[in-house]
Amino acid sequence: MMKALIKVRDVRTVFGTKVVHDGLNLTVNKGEIYGLVGPSGCGKTTVLREMVMLQEISGGKIEVLDHDLSTISSSAAQKLRSEWGVLFQAGALFSSLNIKENISLPLKEYTDLSQKMIDEIVKFKISIVGLKSSDALLYPSEISGGMKKKSALARALAMDPKLLFLDEPTSGLDPISAREFDALILKLRDLLDLSIVMVSHDLQSIYATLDRVAIIDEKKIIYEGDLKNIKNSTNKFIQTFFRSNFEQ
Amino acid sequence: MTNYQKKIDKINLSGVKEVNFNLEAVVYFDTAAAIFINSLREDFFQKNIKTNILTTNQDIVETLDLVLKTKQRTEPFAKEVEETYLEYIGKTFYNYYNGFLAFILFLGKVFSAILSYFVSIKNIRYKEIFFEMNESAIKALGIIALTSFLIGLVIAYQSAYQLKIYGANIFIVDMLGISIFRELAPLMTAIVIAGRSGSAFTAQIGAMKITEELDAMKTMGFEPYLFLVLPRIIALMITMPLLIFVADIMGLLGGIIISYIDLGISASLFIERLNEVVDAKHFFIGLIKGPFFAFLIASIGVYRGLMVKNDTQSIGFNTTKSVVESIFAVIVCDALFSIIFTNLGL
Q: In CA terms, which of A6, A149, A188, B208 is 20 to 30 Å from B101?
């Protein structure tokens, strides 16, 4: 029995009068790359935001690393935040800091490591995501979209999290960089023993990286499991989305 | 297209039983043309006129077919719900009410963030505070000095003319001293800072919200209230009295120059008279207003920044709101101070 890192149970989300989720259930196990897939506006990113405590739920329960998010104390929440990393769609690097400062920020704030040690760690993270150390002093406005994503990933990995959340990691990248990014995610999972939750639209990236997938449609999870059996589903979205006979 | 439509509308169709669309000579045919022809055919169909398409071009036939099929599938646009005036008023007031509650919530969060300063001294972000002090106050010194110098000049010049009529030249010192210390310097400083730094707070934080930097901070456990909100508020509260002090000096300097040129009052006489007739309390009342104004300007500026939604337009909207609201709040606050100090006999 694998250990469940995230449990989402009967979650209900309401924006104004619009019900986004009603009775949403999913489980993310240790060591897997778990994907959230669904049509636009189905609330994939919303679930992700709920998991990282950016969005409150209107009903139900979410447990992350054995903490119930609705009853968590602020100190436990603070500790929990250091155990995950989040990669936002556009990177969300702090624009007033350069790449090196962006990555070293959590280390400076939360650890009492020496500056030399922090520099070493930053260098390691920069090279592990495939950036050059010579780029470290550039500011977010001076680098390309792919580099921004890689730097943001390096920042998300700064504290060596157990859990990594990725919001559309390959969107806005050219196909070659996108495949490189997929390979990078797989490599990091093996290298750092990560569990990854990601929202994606990119079919190639879905087939290349995901172990398990959850399809959200009509406010619920309509499919949860591996990708092999997915084509047997009769749901319209799944049929259209996975119609292409393209697998790796 | 509308020209053709007009021409076609003018044709007398009585007695016509059949219309042929001859598209043989057409070289280029797009979907807009197909939609036009399609709607013509529908019109004719309603008037019981038969229509034929004459073409051998397979592309045209397919385009027409596509348009026809798509049209059969499309649904009419959803009707726009019209608001009655009562609904509009109700919604507007409800929005204001919600905005007010949101601001109260914001203030509550600010105060709970201040409480965390008492939990651990490490929570105070000195670096950010000093940075903001430099950014939003020290760099504003020049413009504040210049504005208040000009205001002192103008007020002195206008009143010198009036005072001369009565031969009450020396009373310009009383007038300038009290009005600049008590009202003009604090208000001018507050207005310049609201326009300069309050708007900057809104735009900076608003832009950070759009690029998800705020969300990124939260997920990394950096409380934005500790890192962004409080340093700005505190920095402005500390520096505002200093800025008012500068405005006092520069305003009086303007007054001294005009008094000398226009009324022949020497600088030393001016200062001697100032010492005699203007109590120190006027000066201190002006300074005390500083932190209050600063709190209003900074908190409204930051609050408006946090209210920015996920589109670029709302940055402009909220920046405007931030400046207007903070200047208004400063003036209301000043009026309250007037009442309070008068009742206290100060």
A: B208
